[in-house]
Amino acid sequence: MQRREVVSALLAPRQDNLLTVGGLGSSSWDIAATADNPQDFCLVGGMGLTVSVGLGLAGARPQNRVLVITGDGDMLMGMGSLATVAQIQPRNLAIVVLDNEMFGETGGQPTHTAGVTDLAAIAKGAGIPTTGTIRDAAALQDTLPHIHESDGPVFYVAKVSAEMPPTVYPPLDGPFAKDRFRAAVLGDGAV
Amino acid sequence: MTEKSAEWPSDIFTVLREREISQICHVPDAGHDRLIRLCTAQNDMSVITLTTEEEGVGILAGAWLGGRRGALLMQSSGVGNTINALALPAACRMPFFTIVTMRGEWGEGNPWQLPMGQGAPGALEAMGVTLYRVERAEDVTDTVSAAAAQAFNNQCSTAVLLSQRLIGAKGFK
Ligand SMILES: Cc1ncc(C[n+]2csc(CCOP(=O)(O)OP(=O)(O)O)c2C)c(N)n1
Predict the structure, then answer these.
(1) A182 contacts in B (CB within 8 Å)?
(2) Which residue out of A21, A51, A76, A84 would a mutagenesis test of the B interface target, given it has the greatest number of B Cβ atoms within 10 Å?
(3) Which of A64, A134, A44 is nearest to A97 (CA)?
(4) How many CA atoms lie within 13 A of A92 on its CB side?
(5) pLDDT tens digits, B15-65
(6) Range B146-162 burial, b when 16+ CB lie within 10 A, else e
(7) pLDDT digits (tens, 9 = 90+) for B65-122
């Protein structure tokens, strides 16, 4: 699959109560390329933390659906966070890993998933009940309702090709990005 | 030391309640045991056990994005696990508040605790975290309260270092 097609299928049309957390690098660019939505918080650093940010947000906002979209490299750095998600079992948290089997942002060096590592199996072993690997557009369509509506936590690996689409930046200024997100979610009084 | 199984953990708990801090993350340390139990027993607090301390920095950032205040409880060795993660609250000017039980000082018995215990304050300061140190039980309430106020009122990072003198040195021999 093409990564941008996967992310547009996830985010357009957009559900009002959806909050998205994007992982550093290509995943954040994909989210920004889909739309400049204030309910998206895109990391541009903090490698390995994306799932943790989603977990904290899901706990603070039980009335929202929280979708983490990140890369395989970021997920590998934060594998312990899957065990923590499994302990908490947040019903409103979904995680999608765009697995291009490489560290795309740093030159395309192969990650562990290019070898023998299976992130969906790791998530299952961590204790996340609903996991799977999506390999084509038809499977993605079938999985969308689970990502958006099933009781969480849900975890899916979407296998994507190695192409690197043009970079589209989300807000790079952290205080602006954070204030814009909080105002969108909590109201203008929050900033 | 027996005398010290005293009131300061519940003093910290009271400050957490007053400051409306409800998301607690920790990798346990013996020095935080009592506080963790108090928080766990409180229905409207969420207590998350981490696999590594850096997760806590991410969780607290996410909680803040959703309007919730939190604190990371860790041992000084855990500070070393958080360093790059601390870029997240720093780059986004989010509050980050941690309470660190110090090891590797004041009669420490385990030589493996010395490097990170003695390096922890410098590592935190290098990442822009303002330090508040507590040596005596009577200073706990004011210091923890001031550190939390600074973090949440100014959207910056603060750490309270609870000295090993306060907690009680862990003798190995
Ligand atoms: C702690 C840390 N180590 C290394 C880097 C350099 N780095 C930036 S992006 C990236 C790769 C991310 O890979 P992945 O999550 O698979 O994303 P992709 O770009 O392939 O979509 C790396 C290693 C970093 N930013 N932080």
Answers:
(1) 65, 67
(2) A84
(3) A134
(4) 17
(5) 999 999 999 999 999 999 999 999 999 999 999 999 999 999 999 999 999
(6) ebbebbbeebbbbbbbb
(7) 999 999 999 999 999 999 999 999 999 999 999 999 999 999 999 999 999 999 999 9
Our answer on whether the CB atom of A29 is closer than 6 Å to any ligand 1 atom is: no
Q: Report the nearest atom of ligand 1 relative to the CA of A98.
A: 21
Of A81, A88, A178, the CB nearest to B94: A178
Distance from CA of B97 to the nearest CA of A (A): 15
Complete domains list, chain B, with CATH:
3-167 (3.40.50.970)
Q: Which helix (H) or strand (E) holds A76?
A: helix A72-77
Spatial neighbors of A60 by CB under 8 A, at least 6 apart, are B23, B62, B63, B64, B65, B66, B67, B68
Ligand 1 proximity of A63 Cβ (cutoff 6 Å): no
* CB contact at 8 A, A157 and A132: yes
> Which residue carries 């602006």 as its tokens?
A176
Residues 6 or more apart whose Cβ sits within 8 Å of residue A84: A52, A55, B48, B49, B50, B51, B55, B59
State ipTM: 0.98
Fold of A3-190: Rossmann fold (3.40.50)
Question: What is the C-alpha separation between B147 and A171, in angstroms, rounded?
Answer: 30
Cβ contact, residue pair A178, B48, below 8 Å: no
Q: How far is the CA of A77 from the centre of ligand 1 (A)?
A: 9
> How many residues in chain B?
173
Tell me which residues of chain B, numbers 15 to 44, contact chain A at a CB-CB cutoff of 8 Å. Answer: 23
* Residues paired with A154 in a beta bridge: A94, A130
